[in-house]
Amino acid sequence: PLVSMTEMLNKAKDGGYAVGQFNLNNLEFTQAILQAAQEEKSPVILGVSEGAGRYMGGFKTVVKMVEGLLEDYNITVPVAIHLDHGSSYDKCKEAIDAGFTSVMIDASHHPFEENIETTSQVVEYAHSKGVSVEAELGTVGGQEDDVIADGVIYADPKECQELVERTGIDTLAPALGSVHGPYKGEPNLGFKEMEEIGAATGVPLVLHGGTGIPTKDIQKAISYGTAKINVNTENQIASAKKVREVLAADSEMYDPRKYMGPAREAIKTTVIGKMREFGSSGKA
Ligand code: G3H
Ligand code: ZN
């Protein structure tokens, strides 16, 4: 069933595992992620960036596509549809009105007081509809769609505590050195801050830029209160690699089902691997 993230993340935090947010790019991504979740008996968060939402037709199309698959695939595990990096109150409201069960308001690039104000407005509307809210502090490096960073800024633990207390968000993404897209070298995550922020705020934490983070760092992050890990690029790479391989092997192939089908399998395999790594398998 479609649910908000609140219960799944609180359970994950208490249980010492993390729920994956896997981003949707098209129908095949959605199918693969839902099939993986059902097979693994894992809760799952479907992340939709504004850009991916536009690509798929709009928020309403996304919600109806997901709802259709939940029925056709007889999905029984908890599923959240989450706006990833919502850029404004209006975008968050649009997603909520279309049927999203969770939103992220990313006002992290605005001054602190403005971040608090915008986030509070989103929380007020979202909570009145039973929708969960994620906010961000600091800067995640790299680029994802419209979200482009010049550098990495680590979140400040004091500000994190204040943001959580003054806004009533359900979960917080403190940027602590993670990057959207592939890493150049090993990531250098601020675990000291993560531990401090987890303890000071009490809310489950979110780790963006999940692609390419070594397993030991994933485990450390979970032990410091990270209960949600976002992955997009890794699935995109797996899918593109498979399409290249299949088309290169047969220059006569033109039926999209013949190359997107294998790509869908590659995404599913990748997602299953992440669910096992994050410890969410068998938790639904
Ligand atoms: O918001 C989405 C994620 O942070 C995805 O990051 O593409 O590096 O896995 P990634
Ligand atoms: Zn992100």
From TrEMBL:
EC number(s) recorded for this UniProt protein: 4.1.2.13
CDD domains named among the record's database cross-references: TBP_aldolase_IIB
Residues that coordinate or bind Zn(2+) 1: H85, H180, H208
Family matches, as Pfam families: F_bP_aldolase
Residues at the active site: D84 (proton donor)
Binding site for Zn(2+) 2: D106, E136
Cofactor, free-text remark: Binds 2 Zn(2+) ions per subunit. One is catalytic and the other provides a structural contribution.
GO molecular function: fructose-bisphosphate aldolase activity; zinc ion binding
Broadest EC class assigned to this enzyme: lyase
NCBIfam families in alphabetical order: cbbA (TIGR00167), fruc_bis_ald (TIGR01859), PRK07709.1 (NF005823), PRK08610.1 (NF006376)
Native source organism of the sequence: Falsibacillus albus
Membrane-spanning parts: none
UniProt binding sites for dihydroxyacetone phosphate: G181, G209, G210, T211, N230, V231, N232, T233
The protein's name in its UniProt record: Fructose-bisphosphate aldolase
Keyword set includes Metal-binding: yes
Keywords: Lyase, Metal-binding, Zinc
Known cofactor(s): Zn(2+)
One of the GO BP terms on file: fructose 1,6-bisphosphate metabolic process
